[in-house]
Automatic annotation (TrEMBL):
Pathway: Protein modification; protein ubiquitination. SUPFAM superfamilies: POZ domain. The gene is LOC108843429. Residues 29-97 form the BTB domain. This is BTB/POZ domain-containing protein NPY1. It comes from the Eukaryota. It comes from Raphanus sativus (Radish). It holds the Pfam family NPH3.
Amino acid sequence: MKFMKLGSKPDTFESDDKFHKYAVSDLDSDVTINVGEFTFYLHKFPLLSKSNRMQRLVSQASEENINDITISDIPGGHKAFEICAKFCYGMTVTLNACNITSVRCAAEYLEMTEDADRGNLIYKIEVFLNSGIFRSWKDSIIMLQTTKSLLPWSEDLKLVARCIDSVSTKILANPETITWSYTHNRKLSGQDKIVEYHRENVVPKDWWVEDVCELEIDMFKNVMSAVKSSGRMNSGVISEALRYYVARWLPESIESVSEASSNKHLVETVVSLLPRVNRAMSYSTCSFLLKLLKVSFLVGADETVIEDLVENVSLKLHEASVKDLLIHEVELVHRIVDRFVGDEKGVSEDDRYKEFVLGNGVLLSVGRLIDAYLASNRDLTLSSFVELSEMIPEAARPINDGLYKAIDTFLKEHPELTKSEKKRLCGLMDVRKLTSEASAHAAQNERLPLRVVVQVLYFEQLRANHSPVGSVAASSHSPIPPVKKAEESIVVVEEETKKVGLSKKSRGSKSTRSGGGAGGPQLMPSRSRRIFEKIWPGKGESNKSSEVSSGSSQSPPGKSSSSSSRDRRHSIS
């Protein structure tokens, strides 16, 4: 820290107690000055020789025939006044970044200008500011911190503006030219790193962040506004500074953030400073934006602030994680997704194609995200589950495995659902878009309604018939028959299946499962096999024969197989 010493005489100010001070001299004190709770017993001549204001106050006191002068509104209080008084006596005083603002304001108040005495206090302070304080990074920061308590004096004297200009100019300097010391102790995670350190002693682009984040929020805003308006600072570094400021001044636990007005002002200010978000450039991470959104609700931020954050989050939703979404109420997630979908409608097909080719796949990423969220949020109601799922465009789900997992999880968590509710839930899913693995799971899933199982088996068999043997990719991309034709076949199968008593079928299923455990592997449960045989009479027996005969290939359908199928159909009817 730089400093400047003024005067050469020894300090002879003494005190009888805490609130009374006097200048030791051969002459008796001839003026008493009250500054707040403190009383100074001084001499007129030294004060009048340096201060125009003291000349007027002493003259006024003489006219009123009183010796006491009261100064109640001097900036900096008794400490700043004492330094100014010692300067008038020629005593040694030390100025530095911590006290120079208050002394400069007090000197202005006392009118210690050049017309009162050449080389007066204001002149000497200005020389020190320009040659010392504003050339130092740390001193500029410290001085800026002191200006807050001295408003409006510090602002009227342009001290605030000059500090901000000094700080912002140094922030915008080329890192390679920086020779002053700075604080940089943060250990950033991979996604938060601004600079890769390729060699030792490299000055990172965000070298200034920690020091600036020590500023009070209004001063921090002034500095950041100056940096942003220059257009010369990387938006990613600005976002890092905002993220660090929030981490520095708000509790680590989001839930412990209070509704104090200071927190509200801090959050609203940070949001106002956020770089404009777009999909092409990742400035603020979606995780940070979502946490900031949560805090905004907790501190009672204005609706315009929340709306701004919702907009920013929606533009970066494809980068979010399920963990980030789970900290919010489902209504807010609805709101974010709704905004995303609205913005997505404005994206051209060419832009969407470029995103897909480049590996971004914004729409696909959001589809996977919401499906995972539906599968993870145990507090969802049926209505909220359905509404949120229906908000996702069909193009976001070329494969429905994620949605199937979410539906199955919901069915498992809510066994009390009625038949109509299950139908409504499962109606969200297009079984034709399930992969072979998901279809195999669904075909054996007893939580699914019968109609859904029938659909799964039907479409899986049709897909197999249209796929090259042994093709893995064909399982999810093969031609699929028209829905109308498929529905007609499924209805027929359902009607025939219903003729069989549910209790009988249940007992038969248990028996089959029991037999499978002792006799060897079972490829399809009893319920699913019977449905399968209804759709494909010849295939069912063929598959069954394949299960029993482990050493031979599937035998072609013959007379006995057809006869067996006919017998089975006769027994069911």
